[in-house]
Design brief:
Shape: elongated
CATH class of the largest domain: Alpha Beta
Largest sheet: 5 strands, mixed
Strand order of the largest sheet: 4-1-3-2-5
Helix content: 40-55%
Distance between the termini: 43 Å
Pfam families: BLUF
Structural class: alpha+beta
Protein name: BLUF domain-containing protein
Oligomer: single chain
CATH architecture of the largest domain: 2-Layer Sandwich
């Protein structure tokens, strides 16, 4: 059985990891920094952190049309369910809505993401579900079990164009959530 670390030992361990990896390809990204912070606070054990890092992150970026025009109450219900489901299954992400269209990124273990995405593809609230990107990648939305935002139809179109071209810098996106999405997929 591993011995418990003191708060000082946790702090020093995190500082050493950061110092050893600074300016290297191993430097902690947002998700890894969040885990290190939780470890430093004593919220995660070393074994839990190692397990979370080893599980890998799978991402799906898709867009779809809403079946009809969902009311605010229907969107709120969808978000309430999504946030609870995602938190229980280690899924994070971002859902954007614009004039009857959804743009969403989901990230978590491959099994959890593929199960949820299959459910979304069968969900009668969606039509014309189209995968934009799918595969492994770093966790970018770790702080959101499911963030949500409204964007203009023009911004949504710009984001879809930007994630599909090699040089997205030519596309101007001003919404902070769309910028986060583009940084994750470009």
């Amino acid at each position: 059985m591993p011995f418990p670390l003191t708060p000082g030992q946790r702090r020093r361990a995190v500082a050493m990891v950061v110092a050893l990896t600074t300016n290297t390809s191993l430097a902690p990204q947002r998700y890894e920094r969040q885990l290190l912070t939780q470890f430093e606070r004593g919220e995660l054990t070393l074994e839990q952190m190692e397990s979370l890092l080893a599980s890998g992150v799978h991402q799906v970026l898709y867009h779809s049309r809403a079946a009809g025009h969902p009311t605010q109450a229907e969107l709120d219900a969808l978000l309430t369910w999504s946030r609870a489901y995602n938190a229980a299954h280690g899924i994070t992400g971002l859902l954007l809505y614009s004039d009857g269209r959804y743009l969403q990124v989901l990230e978590g273990t491959e099994a959890a993401i593929e199960d949820l995405y299959a459910h979304i593809q069968r969900d009668t609230r969606h039509s014309q579900v189209e995968t934009v990107s799918r595969g492994p990648g770093p966790r970018r939305f770790a702080e959101w079990s499911m963030d949500f935002g409204y964007v203009s139809p023009h911004q949504l179109e710009q984001a879809l164009i930007a994630v599909q071209i090699p040089e997205p810098s030519a596309v101007l996106v001003t919404d902070a959530r769309l910028q986060a999405l583009l940084q994750a997929f470009t």
